[in-house]
Amino acid sequence: MGRADVATTSSKFANGQWSVLVVHPKVRWGSGSASVLKQADRQLEEAVALVNNLPNMIAVDSLIMPVDYNTKRKSIWAAGNLEKLVARRETARATALMVNVDVLSPAQQEELFGIFEVPIFDRYNIVLSTFKEFARTDEARLQISLAEIPYIKHRIHALASKRLHSRPEILHVEQQYAEIEGGDLNEILRKREQDLRRDLKEATRRATEQQSGGSKHSSDAAVIAVVGYTNTGKTSLVKRLTGAESLKPKDQLFATLDTTRHVAKLPSGRSAVFTDTIGFLSDLPIHLIAAFEATLAHVKSADVIIHLRDVSNPDWKAQEEDVVATLKSIGVAREVMAERMITVDNKIDKDTSVDSPESSLSESSSIRISCKTGDGMAELIGVINEKVSIATKCKTIRLRLDVRSPVIEWLYHNEFVVVEPISDGNMLIFDVVMNESEIGRFRKKFAHLKRKN
Ligand SMILES: Nc1nc2c(ncn2[C@@H]2O[C@H](COP(=O)(O)OP(=O)(O)OP(=O)(O)O)[C@@H](O)[C@H]2O)c(=O)[nH]1
Question: What is the number of other CB atoms lying within 10 angstroms of the CB of residue 353?
Fold first, then answer.
């Protein structure tokens, strides 16, 4: 499949780019909702950024339109507001409409298409196309294909019942499915899902094998997952902490779709694998999150989770709630978050005067850093070191060894010596940090020496 497959069949797709009118349907939320915190204009801004992030789309105009009914009902707007929207589309010469809701139902698509006569996109379309655009590995591509299945299922029935016949905004892949004659579509999709899951399992196994291959301590290395809203600086942080030249931060949404793993040495001498994973986004359709389970699985089992927030963004609080909700939805329990999570505030070098007094009161437990200037890095490394020691049940052990002891070579060879030993006559005193399994290994290997002593 080609990139950004949405809407490949319309005659209005000119100059290789869709001119999109972005509409944010403003809903009156009940109090207590996370979205209350996020102003409608910022949600609109985010939708425009998502559209502009795609190479074949450009937002030519955008507006907030209060809903007259309900975003779940067939009709979102009444005649008056619809007329205003139609006029706005004509003035902007938009060749497509993006309605900033999670997923539009086939009935809503149908109604809006009947009125506007241009392709109608929702967040699912746009996010899925964005994912396709930035997927670089088999693992990510397979996860995206898997994420497409529920959406296709949802709409294929409408297609099959001719309610959405040959419509321009349908996904290319839906068209392919719709053209399959005679077969049971549900059965075909079920089979495809099964095949994709099998291939994904294999791709994940291969990726894990390849990426852990280079590390001497791979099995004992602590795993540190860096999570956070898209564009908060996750890649920049991993680059800072590990010096990985191969990582190139991009000012782009979802630049990271594939999990990257990079190894660094902590002050304790312990190796740590930092994983930089997919960015989170508000209202990510649940199927999309579920499909990225393979990518996110390591977060559940990570020894330490770094939650990075971009405090220069006025919406950081609402973004944080989205991240926490997403983590919960993939099965990261609250206790795990409380125990293993380090909250880190990034981009403190930027002008944060826009912050409300409330936001500048961010919990004192968070660590303030700048990936750009390096501020706060030493403190952060110290905290990571401490958390990893607790999570991996590490202990500092003092060893008093004869200078000729074979243990010394073993300690150096296995990279346990971080602080040079203190000399005491013929003896050397080492302080080494080991976890339970390493202590076990050590005892087993040198049990004969102990017996001799
Ligand atoms: N001023 C400033 N900019 C930063 C800082 N950290 C990151 N950035 C910039 O923010 C943008 C996004 O950084 P990334 O590291 O790609 O963010 P990410 O969270 O990995 O992004 P996704 O992969 O989209 O989720 C880039 O342009 C970075 O240069 C910082 O401390 N200060």
Answer: 7
